[in-house]
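Researcher: For the annotation table, I need structure tokens for Pyridoxal-phosphate dependent enzyme. Please keep the output clean. Sequence:
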Amino acid sequence: MTRITRNLLLDCKAIVQEYIHRTPVLTSTLLNEHSKVDLYFKCENFQRSGSFKMRGAVHAISTLTDEQKAKGVVTHSSGNFAQALSLAARSIGVKAYIIMPNNAPQVKKNAVRSYGGEVIECEPNLPSREKAAQEIVLKYGATFLHPSNNFNVILGQGTATMELLEDHPDLDYIMTPVGGGGLIAGTALAAHFFGRHCNTIGGEPFNVDDAYQSLKTGKIVRNESTDTIADGLRTELGDINFPIIMDYVEMIIRVEEKEIIEAMHLIWERMKIIIEPSCAVPFAALLREKDFFKGKKVGIILSGGNVDLGKLPF
């Protein structure tokens, strides 16, 4: 893997900023009083395509050679990366093939197509997704881009924290949800190189606590269940992002399903913004451990706002 440096992250930010929104950082006096913490919410729910994943997608495509760009990119995803890669590819002028399970909601397939991605459906299991992606690679010469276990994707995701620390350089902690590990790995790198003694903490559901178990044991642990409302966190860590997490993430706090719903409801009620369940997990983790964070300045990456309004849990 390429040696990670401060300049590498700065180069990444220079590439990415042409294609993304610099999302706002919101605060809430009521939530500060409720938690006894100074909170700074980095609102990636306002990002293009509705999530932070636009950052990593743009950077990963931008770092390809002209020959690779001419042959397109492919990924397998039924969530935010599917939409992000489609929009990023269209913005840069590259063809995007998106492998999606045939039981993915039609609204998600329509969103990918609206961003210019070509949807290829497969059976709803990982082997089928990987096989379909490999067939596109062989047929068209497209470059496969993993949603979270890709070095250039990880660097791109870190740019959200770089922006946050430019606005608020004295944060004690930055918190993110943990799913595939791309966001927390990028966040941890940015906090390490650009923060002032700023540590990274992850939030994860008890029902899919593979990252917590992996950090505890020092090796990647797989989930035995995917039973969580935080559907974006059902994925698992990879061999590229896990070493970064081991080196730069302080800890991961697990939360119950009811705590996720309560945190999501509190943000909707007090801040009047739309977030998806996965996005509420780090705030739920902070509320669970309020005594630990009391009196600190904490940034929280609100990872996305692509939620089905017809299926709200409250």
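Researcher: And a one-line annotation?
Model: Residues 54-144 form a domain with the Rossmann fold fold (CATH 3.40.50.1100).
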